[in-house]
Every structure is written in structure tokens, then in C-alpha cells.
Design a protein that fits this description.
CATH class of the largest domain: Alpha Beta
Order of helices and strands: HHHEEHHHEEEHHHEHEEHEEHHEE
Structural class: alpha+beta
Low-confidence stretches: 1-13, 214-218
Helix content: 40-55%
Radius of gyration: 34 Å
Length: 430
């Protein structure tokens, strides 16, 4: 049996401390079962330079992130006689900050294995095998040679909650307290959060690469699925209207269902437009005429919303090579967005000018609407992002894609409660 009187804990026991004692008792039992005696010296076992190099490379992200936290931990430890250690899940020390010759001689050094089989009960080996935070004060070490030291270890996990390794601190027993374990735990949590964030960023990069690599077969499949869903929605819509006519379905509920159907249908239509192969027919057109025709189309909708559209064109026509249908659809989308942004009415000002220095025509769509929050400005061209109640989150992406297909660009400026301006630049031709 384990000699229980060798265990010394702080006078005020907490649940955490009692839990730690349980794991230390289990560790002592493992040491005894392995034939280890308290008077033994540690079994120094250092991995080869090649193995160490491999482990360091495998854990580079962990080391890089942990080192930023170790700097702060160093400042918070009251004694200069300390070592802060990063250990791999294979029980090998892969990084060490600080130098205590006595501990180095006992095997607390880079490349050394700190498994219980080699070191007995210790903050790193016991922490990894138990997968819990551990504090090992003086007499709690199985081997007598470690009893003047206190060790603290916390496991570090990846985004899948798999153990990556451990972060540990050694200090003299007389300077040790459980606050060190708490500080170490906070650092470990910060490291885990950073690791998770890094992992998520990599996943997003991979996803973006996959999305950008969509071929025509995938796009056609998406278009077919969209078509089938739209057909189903049309059938549902017809049945809802029939039930409404027969007074089986409450009118308000029916209207709500139909509204949602229309919303989904619009999203599918926009998605289909977004994913279908681009087939553009570029012709030489007057941007002056194109904008006038577009405004004429949108005037009835603007009047219904109490929006006044003012248009300022150049004295001399500006010509560009454009696909009339797609570029006009983009302009219509921008005007519709402006109208929606002015719920209580307002003014939309459209200006056409020439930037001769860059060979670009500039079209401005300036509204007096509610504006866009600053944190949303960078998101408005993201997939499915929308501030409209029934928006698809695809309209501005379609605009951006269309303008980009015309070798143009689009940007936005906005102030809350003052309005928003979209700037579209297109190459002009003589």
C-alpha cells in the first residue's frame, strides 16, 4: 500500500485539491507496481536528436503559441529558481525556459522523457497519463530526489479535445502554492483557444480552396437541385393558396407561409444565378443610356417607397464594353438595396463621371438611408450575409461577381443614420 502519511496538502482542502490527491495516490500505486522504490534515482532516457527534431516540428504550433504565454508566466512567478516546460504527449520535453542545474541533472531537460516509468510521480508525466491538471508538492513526489521541489502541470488539448502535451512549472517547495496551478490553467486555456482558432482558420482555407475549385459538373448539379426545389416550392405554394380559398388554413398563417416560400424561392434563384456558368455577350454601350434606362425601370418602385431618384450624367457619352443584361441587373440590385435602406423615403443620387487617369468610368449610388454598421461593412460582400429581413444574402455577391467579370471593382462607404454610397468602376473605351 501507498504510505499515505507522505502526502502533505494545504490545510484548507478544496474539491480540486482532493481530486489531485486521488490522482497522485494512483500514480504512487503505478510506481510501486512498476517495481520502483522511493530511494531510486530517475531513469534518464533521452530521445535521439532525430526524434527530438521530429517532435519539435510536429508541435511547432503548440510551442510558438505557448512561448507567448510563458513570458507572462515568468513575470508572475515569485522566485527566479524556476523552469517552465513544454512537454509532448509522448512524455518528451520539447522546450524549456529557465535553467536550474539540479533539475537538469535529474532529467528535467529538453529531449528527456518524463514518464512515470522514468521519473516516478511528477507533474508532467502524471498530468499526461491522467489527463488532468496536477500539483505535486515535495513529499508527493515518489522519488526522494525530487522532494525539495514542487511541480505543476496542465494538459493541453487540440480542437478535438485530444491531448497534445502539457505545460509545466518547477519551483522550490517552500515558494510553491496552488495559485501557480491556477495561473498555469489559465495559460493552458489561452493556448488551447489559440490552437483552436488556428485550426479553424486552416479549415476555412481548405474550404475556400475546395469552393474555388468547383468545376462545371458541381455547378450544374447545384443548379439542377435548385430547380427541383423551386418546383417543389411552387407546388406547396399552390396547395397553400387552395387551402386558403377553402378556408381550411388561417389567412395570416397562409400569408406567412407564402412569404417564406417566396423568400426561399428568391434565394434559390439568386443561388442559381451565382453558380451557373458565366456566358457574357460584350458589346459597346453608352453608360449614360444604360443608367437612364435602368432608372426608368426602377422609378415606379422608387415612387411607391417615396424615394426620389436623381441622376447626373456626363455631357459626352461614356462608352464601355459590357454585357447589357448582367450589368443592368447589377445596377438594379444596387438601386433596390438603396430603396430598401430608406424605409421612410429619401433620395438616391446616381452620378456618372470619368476618371481619365485610370481609364475608368465611376458610377456612384448614394442614398440617404439608415447606413451600415462599421463592423458589417467588410461582411456585406460575404456569402449569405444580409441586413434585410427577407434578403438572400446573395445580391451583392452577384453584383461583385458581375462587375469583376467586367474587369471592374465595387466598394462601399457608409455612416449610420446618414446613408451609404456604392462606388462602381468600369473600364471605358473611346
Amino acid at each position: 500500500m501507498v504510505n499515505r502519511k507522505s502526502f502533505h496538502m494545504e490545510e484548507e482542502y478544496s474539491d480540486d485539491i482532493i481530486s489531485i490527491r486521488k490522482y497522485i495516490l494512483s500514480s504512487w500505486e503505478r510506481c510501486l507496481n512498476n517495481g520502483m522504490l522511493p530511494e531510486d534515482m530517475p531513469h534518464l532516457k533521452k530521445v535521439s536528436a532525430e526524434e527530438l527534431d521530429k517532435l519539435v516540428k510536429q508541435n511547432k504550433n503548440l510551442i510558438d503559441i505557448a512561448l507567448t504565454y510563458i513570458k507572462d508566466l515568468k513575470k508572475m512567478i515569485s522566485t527566479d529558481e524556476n523552469i517552465i516546460i513544454i512537454c509532448s504527449k509522448e512524455y518528451v520535453i520539447i522546450n524549456k525556459t529557465g535553467h536550474v542545474p539540479e533539475l537538469v541533472e535529474l532529467g528535467i531537460d529538453v529531449g528527456q522523457s518524463v514518464s512515470e516509468e522514468n521519473m516516478g510521480t511528477n507533474c508532467l508525466g502524471t498530468c499526461i497519463i491522467s489527463n488532468v491538471p496536477i500539483a505535486v508538492f515535495g513529499d508527493q513526489h515518489f522519488l526522494d530526489v525530487f522532494k525539495k521541489w514542487a511541480g505543476f502541470g496542465v494538459p493541453i488539448h487540440d480542437s478535438n479535445h485530444e491531448i497534445l502535451g502539457a505545460l509545466g512549472i518547477y519551483v522550490p517547495s517552500e515558494t510553491a502554492n496552488y495559485n501557480i496551478l491556477r495561473m498555469l490553467g489559465l495559460a493552458a486555456k489561452g493556448i488551447e483557444n489559440q490552437i483552436q482558432l488556428t485550426s479553424m482558420n486552416k479549415e476555412l482555407e481548405t474550404l475556400n480552396q475546395k469552393l474555388s475549385g468547383f468545376n462545371n459538373d458541381v455547378i450544374n448539379t447545384a443548379s439542377m437541385i435548385s430547380h427541383e426545389i423551386r418546383n417543389s416550392l411552387s407546388t406547396i405554394s399552390a396547395y397553400v393558396q387552395l387551402l386558403q380559398l377553402e378556408s381550411i388554413l388561417d389567412r395570416s398563417r397562409a400569408e406567412r407561409i407564402l412569404m417564406e416560400i417566396n423568400h426561399v424561392s428568391k434565394m434559390l434563384n439568386d443561388f442559381r444565378t451565382l453558380t451557373k456558368p458565366v456566358q457574357l455577350n460584350f458589346v459597346r454601350l453608352s453608360l449614360n443610356d444604360l443608367l437612364k434606362n435602368t432608372v426608368d425601370i426602377m422609378i415606379p418602385k422608387a415612387h411607391m417607397a417615396n424615394v426620389d431618384i436623381k441622376i447626373f450624367l456626363t455631357n459626352n457619352d461614356i462608352y464601355a464594353k459590357v454585357d447589357k443584361d448582367s450589368i443592368q441587373e447589377a445596377f438594379v440590385n444596387l438601386i433596390e438595396n438603396a430603396i430598401h435602406a430608406m424605409e421612410d423615403g429619401g433620395t438616391l443620387t446616381i452620378r456618372l463621371s470619368r476618371i481619365q487617369k485610370h481609364g475608368k468610368a465611376l458610377i456612384e449610388f448614394e442614398d440617404t438611408g439608415v447606413g451600415i454598421e462599421e463592423e458589417n461593412l467588410e461582411r456585406i460582400f460575404k456569402l449569405f450575409f444580409t441586413t434585410k429581413k427577407n434578403g438572400s444574402g446573395l445580391g451583392l455577391i452577384l453584383c461583385k461577381n458581375t462587375i469583376r467579370n467586367h474587369n471592374g471593382s465595387i466598394r462601399v462607404k457608409s455612416k449610420v443614420n446618414q446613408g451609404t454610397t456604392f462606388y462602381v468602376e468600369l473600364p471605358y473605351i473611346d
